[in-house]
Design goal:
Layout: E1 3-8, H1 15-21, E2 23-26, E3 29-32, E4 35-38, H2 45-55, E5 59-61, H3 65-75, E6 81-86, H4 94-102, E7 109-114, H5 119-134, H6 139-152, E8 154-158, H7 163-167, H8 173-181, E9 185-191, E10 194-201, H9 204-219, E11 225-231, H10 235-248, E12 252-258, H11 261-267, E13 272-278
Parallel strand pairs: 1-2, 1-6, 6-7, 11-12
Antiparallel strand pairs: 3-4, 3-5, 8-9, 8-13, 9-10, 11-13
Helix pairs in contact: 3-4, 5-6
Amino acid sequence: MKIAVVTDSTSYIPKNLRDKLNIHMIPLSVIFGNETYKEEVDITASEFYKEVKLKGLPTTSQPPVGQFVELFNKLSEDYDAVISIHLSSGISGTYQGAVTASGMTNGIEVFPFDSEISCMAQGFYVLEAAEMAAAGKSIQDIMARLEEIKKSVRAYFMVDDLSHLQRGGRLSSAQALIGSLLQVKPLLHFVDKMIAPFEKIRTSKKAMKRIVDLLEEDVKSGEPYRAVIIHANREEGAKEWAADLEARFPNVEFMISYFGPVIGTHLGEGSLGLCWMKK
């Protein structure tokens, strides 16, 4: 059986890697006034942060169901099945769009998967599925592995300004107000598919140390792990952090990724996160 792997743009997998692993991507969009940009297609992350300084924060939009139907129908010409992996259904309707489209597609079986997370943590699932599909693994084996990954994936991130999350309805007003008044740097994570506070910490430095402590607790067994540092226009800081962590955790394979336009709209510039999973 020939299996196609589809994801959305919020997995932020670089195009060269998508091309290499034959990953198909559906873009979400950011809207500045009357101008709509498909992320990873019409606008890059670096361009986005420049636009925000000039125009303020945009709104975001999930892909129309018709775009999924069109892609799935096209894939039916060359594939027997599709695994479609998307950002958490708790923060976007994108996954539900894939589910709806799967019932409107002929000639190919579609298996939508809710990663219950986003960004390169979501990308971990996509990369694993693409590698397994290329190796000729079955739908059942790939879907079982995706469920297994959920048991070991951890993702923690901090934001410079809670107001973006509050404005987008991803964090309550009370939590945003308390955070800004006390100048707290809350550690955030995903709980039940939604973004939620993990701990409230006074400074960015202490927050980063706390994330590293959590990583250390998980990887101390010496088993191989894959990890990613994710940044919102903080590339140099991300590189420095990666160099420090690589020296400290030899059993962990580190990479660097970014919060692109759609997720960056809700987290804000300066955000930083660390995600990991057991290989």
